[in-house]
Amino acid sequence: MIKLLFSALMSICMLCGVFAVNSPEISICKFKDGKPAAVTLTFDDGSKDHLYQAAPLLKKYGYKGTFYIIAKRVPAAKNSHKLTWPEIKQLAEAGHEIGNHSMTHYQLFKAKSRKDLEYEIITPIAIIKEKVGVTPETFCYPGNAKTPEIVKLVESVHTGSTKGRRFFYGGDNFDLEKQEKWLNDAITNGSEHQAMIHGIVPGGGGWKPFKNIAVFEEVLKNIKKHDNQLWVCTFAELSKYKKVRDSAKITVTGDKGSTIFDVSSKYKFGIPVTVKILPCPAGVSAEQQGRRLNLIRKGNSAYIDVVPERGQVVLNGL
């Protein structure tokens, strides 16, 4: 009788996704590729040097940035300080994120009415879409000033916002050693690091620029040294990943010679999340919708990128 009850219980566990002895643990990684920390390079205010100084170096090191635009401060014609709409479009076409930094850079907690808030937060969305051809997905608070009510309104019309801590980069006395400590802290603590950058070079149109372009390149070199531990992405990519990750549910079932699992989320961004399988012996392969998935091994674990909307994943040989 006891044996029958145990057998029935194990069957129920498998159907419900509860792992039996020797079954693998399947979980979604905190950050993409199983890396312990994430870095976003954000550039505020749309200064000229973002396109002509920052973008070429980002390309050199293989990174994409998030450029936050103040809609009312975009000039109608070329000048020496701010990017025009065609220049901002060049950034977008290069794969960088174009974000919303409000209509006028008005500190939002000073707004006198809901109408004023909506003007600053919502009106730029349609303008950026019209001028650049992309809908801004994330929002940067002017002066980092916000209240819970402001955050609620902002995130009702954006995928994410810069509500966490931002680390200030720039100025003549910017400390590269401090940046290295920030990055190591993020890796140790398993956290995200938001680099807040304004000017790139003196005379480039931005506030608090670096001493020279070489310092900005050293910033990127510092990050590059930790490529195996840092997921460097746009702020929109990070925001979407976190929403899917934090809302996802994994259901596991078994079949002869295989383990089958499904990742479901209420968010339908069509982006991959990295799934960790522990343990994962040699010889195991993964497929989704009949397509072979790239399975990366690290020790006795394996990692695969799964798009939840594509349905069940089959782990053959597990």
Brief account:
With 318 residues, this protein is an alpha/beta fold. It is 32% helix and 25% strand.
Verbal overview:
The chain has 9 helices and 17 strands. Residues 1-21 have low confidence and may be disordered. It has helices at residues 2-15, 48-61, 85-93, 114-121, 123-132, 148-156, 176-189, 213-224, 235-247, and strands at 25-28, 37-44, 66-69, 97-100, 138-139, 160-161, 166-169, 192-197, 230-233, 249-255, 258-264, 273-278, 285-288, 291-293, 296-298, 301-306, 313-316. The protein starts with a helix and ends with a strand. With 318 residues, the chain is an alpha/beta fold. The relative contact order is 0.17. The strands form 4 sheets. Strands 2, 3, 4, 7, 8 and 9 form a 6-stranded parallel sheet that branches. α2 (48-61) runs parallel beside α8 and α7 runs parallel beside α8. It is globular and about 65 Å long.
Question: How are the SSEs ordered, and which strands pair?
Answer:
Blueprint: H1 2-15, E1 25-28, E2 37-44, H2 48-61, E3 66-69, H3 85-93, E4 97-100, H4 114-121, H5 123-132, E5 138-139, H6 148-156, E6 160-161, E7 166-169, H7 176-189, E8 192-197, H8 213-224, E9 230-233, H9 235-247, E10 249-255, E11 258-264, E12 273-278, E13 285-288, E14 291-293, E15 296-298, E16 301-306, E17 313-316
Helix pairs in contact: 2-8, 7-8
> How many helices in DSSP terms?
9
Mean pLDDT: 93
Rg result? 23 Å
- Largest sheet properties: 6 strands, parallel
Secondary-structure element pattern, one letter each: HEEHEHEHHEHEEHEHEHEEEEEEEE
Outline: globular
